[in-house]
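quick q for whoever's on today - can somebody do inverse folding on this one?? i tried earlier but teh output was garbage lol. tokens:
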């Protein structure tokens, strides 16, 4: 395996694109006195050497480390045109070269260089522990086994299958697209990461039998930053069949305070994450924050992280039971609110944790089986908003505190509008920030803007620090609310209600 990886070592360097550059399949630059600066071995591009005498040339790789030269172009009939002079990297395969970058003794020793589409550097054929076939398992490769990824990408680039060591966080041109081919393994040095901004784009689409692996040089949580999208305006960012592990290092140099995570996105136009494993993060597995459009999040495995993740009202509807979020140190997915007209909160295999949730849109829907834990705050719906929380006997909805103590959180407060609660348990609420405000697990208030109407059936309101149910004058409840629900262990009493006529 070591020799196979050594033969596939590629020194990737990119330079600015000349005005006459026509990209065919990869980058080839005419900048520099030595002709084309670099290209991925095996790739071709039409370029012009700086000597001005060679005309159009084919950029080819010579030598194990991908030193590129201007070779004679081929005419339409297949005959070679005038040979280039003064080209760079004139040593052919088999020469020792002067790269001075520690390549192995058998590199360039006369053996044929392997195709970039199958260098064998990613450990193809093995099975990792994230449920994807064909990966080295992530973290098995080290910087000694891999090529060195360039630091500067002056234009879009496709990285072919193989193993690459990331010495420093790559710098991309403002509009560059970085494409990772199936079978790519990136091994990150301490504190580095993949960071995307402006019109930059990431396309990382692996296959089930050839996943893309992003890992740390050491199997230590928080060894590298992770994948970061900050203020990205480009469309089409995608991760599929990717494994991200040992990330979660503090992220510096951003315009907002970041939550360490394996995958982090803020104010990003569009991102898709499917069939992806995120594991061993020192923080959240993923964090999708305000201003981001999460188009798809299906069949992912988020496990063995400090926390599963962070999501907002804007994107929580993209989550589903097709993904696994359990098996982390603290299995609670943080949920933040936001200015959204309609929100559907799906049931997952872990509860949500919210400091507080305010909703001022049209309708908030909690699906059967949703578990919501609150840290001190309340679930508050403003005037004109509606709550639809309809669980089942098998899948009740549970609204509770982050710890099992009466008054652990404020409870649910509903105002003007129509609300439905069925098979919902509300417990450990009743926390009040003032002595005067009457509180309860469920607090129904009235305003001059309209009537508050609530259908409350098959619900359990228990263990409140105040009332189980408190309702202001004028609130409309179903006639059988006292017998159709269960009340118990509420400190101030089960109910404090003045029932209005329907």
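ok took a stab at it. sequence:
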């Amino acid at each position: 395996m070591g020799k196979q990886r050594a033969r596939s070592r590629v020194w990737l360097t990119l330079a600015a694109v000349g005005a006459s550059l026509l990209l065919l399949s990869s980058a080839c630059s005419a900048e520099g006195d030595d002709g084309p600066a670099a290209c991925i071995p095996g790739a071709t591009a039409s370029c012009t050497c700086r000597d001005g005498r060679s005309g159009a040339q084919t950029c080819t790789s010579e030598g194990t480390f991908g030193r590129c030269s201007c070779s004679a172009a081929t005419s339409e009939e297949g005959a070679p045109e005038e040979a280039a002079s003064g080209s760079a990297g004139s040593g052919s395969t088999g020469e020792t070269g002067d790269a001075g970058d520690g390549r192995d003794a058998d590199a360039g020793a006369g053996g044929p260089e392997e195709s970039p589409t199958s260098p064998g550097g990613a450990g193809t054929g093995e099975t990792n522990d994230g449920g994807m076939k064909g990966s080295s398992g992530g973290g098995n490769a080290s910087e000694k086994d891999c090529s060195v990824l360039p630091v500067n990408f002056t234009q879009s680039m496709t990285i072919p299958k193989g193993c690459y060591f990331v010495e420093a966080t790559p710098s991309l041109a403002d509009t560059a697209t970085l494409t990772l081919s199936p079978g790519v393994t990136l091994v990150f040095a301490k504190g580095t990461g993949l960071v995307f901004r402006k019109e930059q784009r990431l396309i990382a689409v692996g296959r089930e039998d050839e996943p893309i692996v992003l890992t740390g040089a050491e199997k230590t949580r928080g060894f590298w930053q992770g994948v970061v999208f900050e203020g990205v305006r480009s469309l089409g960012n995608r991760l599929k069949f990717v494994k991200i592990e040992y990330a979660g290092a503090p992220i510096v140099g951003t315009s907002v305070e970041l939550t360490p995570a394996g995958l982090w996105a803020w104010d990003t136009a569009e991102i898709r994450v499917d069939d992806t494993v995120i594991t061993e993060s020192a923080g959240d597995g993923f964090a999708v924050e305000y201003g981001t459009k999460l188009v798809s999040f299906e069949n992912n495995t988020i496990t063995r992280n400090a926390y599963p993740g962070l999501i907002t009202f804007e994107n929580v509807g993209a989550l589903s039971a097709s993904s696994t979020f359990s098996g982390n140190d603290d299995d609670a997915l943080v949920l933040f609110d936001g200015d959204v007209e309609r929100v559907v909160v799906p049931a997952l295999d872990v509860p949500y944790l919210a400091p507080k949730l305010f909703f001022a849109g049209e309708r908030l829907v909690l699906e059967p089986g949703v578990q919501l834990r609150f840290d001190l705050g309340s679930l508050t719906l403003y005037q004109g908003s509606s709550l639809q929380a309809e669980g089942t006997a098998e899948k009740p909805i549970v609204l509770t505190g982050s710890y099992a103590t009466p008054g652990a959180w404020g409870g649910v407060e509903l105002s003007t509008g129509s609300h439905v609660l069925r098979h919902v348990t509300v417990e450990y609420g009743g926390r009040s920030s003032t002595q005067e405000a009457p509180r309860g697990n469920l607090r129904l208030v009235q305003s001059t803007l309209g009537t508050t109407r609530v259908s409350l059936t098959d619900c359990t309101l228990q263990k409140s620090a105040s009332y189980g149910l408190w309702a202001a004058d004028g609130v409309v409840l179903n006639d059988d609310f006292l017998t159709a629900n269960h009340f118990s262990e509420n400190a101030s009493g089960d109910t404090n209600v003045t029932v209005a006529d329907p």
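fwiw Residues 337-502 form one domain. also Residues 1-39, 41-59, 61-130, 133-139 have pLDDT under 50 and may be disordered. so keep that in mind when u check it
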